Write a sequence for this structure.
């Protein structure tokens, strides 16, 4: 698949929610080591404007992923990935051509593209969209991907495959195959503890504290990953705010560390959190009269 195929209107709200999440992740500022409105984090080849271009290039493909899922909803989940992949690769190509071959969103396209496809499959079978259903469907689509593409070493040599062989890191594939377990276990249960930007900063810190982010290892080795995890854990253990995040940003930039995998999972969390039930009114300390 090269050019964009003819597409009709989206059948679910997922493509729209994904675009909103990508924009929200990008605009969230400060973000340690990552591109945001203040700076380019640990990156020399990309900035906020380039990310915006990348989001525009990705946008039409999200409906393609959703519609592939919708039309193939009754095919077994295990046959879906190979049918989705040509569109995923074409979307990556559109991103690379919009950014002058800079990798702004490869991980994001993979994780969020799968969620769009999962939503399409659920809608095609007239099943309601929920956090659990979307995660289960994504996991079903990706069953066996780590064993097939990383464990056998058959995948074309990618950063992810090398890191699996050396450190058993399963990266974006492992997260998707687990049905985004890191997000479900470490982020969503705490989503309504905060609101506004602080809600998203809290989620990003929680992700950085636990995520086996292969980006960090390919840039800074296992020590780089440990440094980021430790730094996020320490920040969460004391009162924190923008000043602490800016301090982390300075340290990550000095060490050239960019938690790109956690940025991708933050966007995944934003999409999934939209399906969480609203918190009970008492959670906002409402006076009962
Ligand atoms: C799986 C992909 C992304 C391969 O990449 P690679 O081997 O380099 O994997 P790896 O996991 O190391 O990193 C890729 C990107 O994922 C993100 N990432 C890294 N670690 C994590 C993590 N723990 N959790 C989530 N995302 C992560 C980062 O942004 C990183 O740049 C991919 O290019 C691919 O298979 N593309 C084909 C298109 C496709 O199948 N699309 C399907 C859905 S549309
Ligand atoms: N705001 C963000 N800033 C930086 N990276 C992000 C951001 N949001 C998501 N990412 C993710 O981080 C990944 C880019 O990371 P990185 O630049 O380390 O990868 P690379 O280009 O493969 O490696 P390198 O730059 O070391 O050659 C993208 O695939 C993207 O999905």
């Amino acid at each position: 698949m090269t050019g964009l195929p003819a597409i009709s209107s989206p059948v679910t709200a997922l493509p729209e929610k994904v675009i909103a999440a990508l924009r929200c992740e990008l605009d969230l500022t400060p973000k340690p080591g990552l591109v945001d409105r203040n700076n380019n984090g640990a990156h020399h080849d990309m900035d906020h404007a380039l990310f915006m271009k990348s989001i525009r290039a990705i946008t039409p493909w999200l409906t393609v992923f959703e519609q592939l899922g919708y039309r193939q909803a009754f095919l077994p989940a295990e046959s879906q990935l190979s049918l989705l992949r040509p569109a995923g690769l074409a979307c990556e190509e559109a991103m690379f051509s919009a950014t002058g071959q800079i990798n702004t969103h490869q991980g994001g396209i993979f994780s969020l593209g799968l969620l769009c496809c999962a939503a399409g499959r659920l809608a095609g079978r007239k099943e309601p969209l929920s956090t659990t259903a979307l995660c289960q469907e994504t996991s079903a689509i990706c069953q066996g991907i780590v064993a097939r593409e990383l464990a056998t070493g058959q995948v074309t040599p990618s950063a992810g495959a090398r890191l699996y062989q050396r450190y058993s890191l399963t990266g974006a594939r492992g997260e998707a195959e687990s049905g985004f377990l890191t997000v479900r276990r470490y982020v969503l249960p705490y989503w309504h503890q905060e609101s506004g930007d602080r809600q998203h900063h809290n989620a990003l810190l929680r992700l950085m504290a636990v995520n086996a982010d292969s980006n960090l290892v390919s840039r800074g080795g296992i020590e780089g990953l440990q440094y980021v995890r430790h730094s996020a854990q320490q920040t969460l253990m004391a009162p924190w705010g923008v000043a602490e995040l800016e301090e982390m940003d300075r340290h990550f930039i000095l060490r050239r560390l960019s938690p790109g995998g956690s940025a991708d999972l933050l966007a995944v969390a934003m999409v999934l959190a939209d399906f969480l039930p609203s918190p009970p009114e008492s959670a906002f300390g409402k006076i009962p009269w």
About this structure: The chain has one domain: 14-275. Residues 285-289 have pLDDT under 50 and may be disordered. Residues 202 and 240 are 9 Å apart (CA to CA). Residues 65, 84-85, 88-89, 106-107, 109-111, 113-114, 158-161, 163, 171-173, 175, 211-215, 260-261, 264-265 surround dephospho coenzyme A (ligand 1) (CB under 6 Å).
